[in-house]
Structure formats: structure tokens, C-alpha cells
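Researcher: Here's the sequence for the chain we discussed earlier.
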Amino acid sequence: MSTATLSTATLSTATLTMTGRRELAQRVSSDLEVTLYWDPGDDTTTVEVHHFRTGETIAFHVRPEFALDAYYHPFAHLALASATEVQE
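Model: Thanks. This is the structure I predict for it:
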């Protein structure tokens, strides 16, 4: 009869600390690449839209509760973000 020894592992939250922004989603459609990022340092979400043909990239912050919608409809949210910036 053999005996097995189980060992317990400990995991500290320091091990799980993240720095820098994280890519949450990315999609490519036609000439556009849309990427959704989250920054755990300041808890902000950002959408970036890259146009392959022109090489231009636009990026804008979006409130976390609207992040997924902004990912799927970036130009609608870009217009909202631009309007908010003009008013502030």
C-alpha cells in the first residue's frame, strides 16, 4: 500500500498584481482593427481604432459600463467622447 502526500500551495495577492493596460478584446473588420483595453492601475477602459490603409490610430476613453458597446460601435462613442471633451 502506497501513501500519497498532498501539499498545499499558498498564493498571495502580490503575485496577481497587474501593471499596465490589458487587452480585453480585438476584432478586425475590413480596413479597421478595433481593440478594447483596460488599465488596472487607474481602472480606465480605452478603445483604439486602427485604419490599416491610412495607418492612423485613434484612441478614446470610455466609461467601463459602456466599454463593450463602444468596442462594437466605436464611431458612435467617439462622437460622444468628442462632444464631452468640447463641453469640459
